[in-house]
Fold this sequence. Notes:
alpha/beta; 37% helix
Amino acid sequence: MSSPISPTDEAVDFPYAGEVSVLAISNPQNERANFLLPDSATRTSGAFLADRAHRLARRTQEPISATILTKNSAALLGEVLESLSWCDEVVVFDTGSTDATLEIAASFTNASVHQLKGPFPGFGPARRQAVALARHDWILSVDSDEVVSPELRDEIAGLPLEAQAVYVVPFRNYYNGKHITSCGWYPDCHERLFNRVVTNFCTSNVHERVKTAGLERVKLQQAIHHYSYHSLDDFLRKMSAYSHLFARQHAGRKASGPGKAVARSLWAFFKSYVLERGVLQGTEGLIISAYKAQTVFWKYLMLHEANVRQRS
C-alpha cells in the first residue's frame, strides 16, 4: 500500500529470504478472467464494447497490464477495476481476502486472479510477484483503494511510452469524504507506470518504490483518487500492520529505543499539524496528524523490541 511520502526518496532494496508462493485460480473457459462468476454477475456487454473501443482508439501501441494487491478490498474494488477496464489486463494478486474480493474481481473480463500461499512477504516482494504474473511488460501499479480518473486514463492512452522512463502519477488523497490538502498528503505523487524489463519495485517491506536510478522520471498531469482511510478503524489497523513490517525490515540494522520513539513521534505531530498545515483542515487534520505521530511512536518501539530480541 502506498502512503504519501517524499517523491525524492529513492527506493532501496532490503534482503528478503524466501519465495513467494502463488495459487492461480484458473478456469479453462476464460483465459482473461482466471476465476468466473455466473453470467449474471458479469458486466454488461455495452460496457465491455465501450472499453474495447477505448483500447482500440488509444494512441500508444504498447499493451498495458495493471497490477493490484488486494486483501478484503470489496468495499471499493468494483470502482477501482471499473477505472481500469481500458487496460489490456488486470492482475489481481490477493493476499488473504475473506470477503467478496475474489468474486468482484472475477466479474471483470480483463482480470486474472491469483492468491498468495503462505505468509505475507511484505509489500515490495508482493508487488514484484504481481508484476511477474503480468503478461505484458508495461505495468501500471494501482492499489485496491485507488481509482484512476478518466483524465489520467486518457493521458496515458496518448503517451508515446519510453522504456527508459518511469511515469510519476499525482495523487489526490481523501479522508472522510474530503480532499486532504495538508498533513503532507498534498501535493503527493508516486511512480506507477514503468517497463518491467528495465526496472521494478524495490524489496522493502513498507514504503516500497519503483527504482528510478539512471532513468527519466516523467511527471503526468492527471491524478489517481486515493481513498485509503474510511474510518478510525482503518487508521488503527494500518498503523499496526505498518509498524510490524517496519520493525521486521529494520531489525538489526537500525537503532531504536523509547526515547527515540517519543522524540520522533512528537516531531511527526508538529510537522504534520503545524508545518504542513493540518491545523487548517479541522478534525480531519487533527486525526491524520495524531495518526502519523502514533505510527512513528509504535514502529520505533516495535523496532526496539525486535532489536532486543535479536540480541538476546
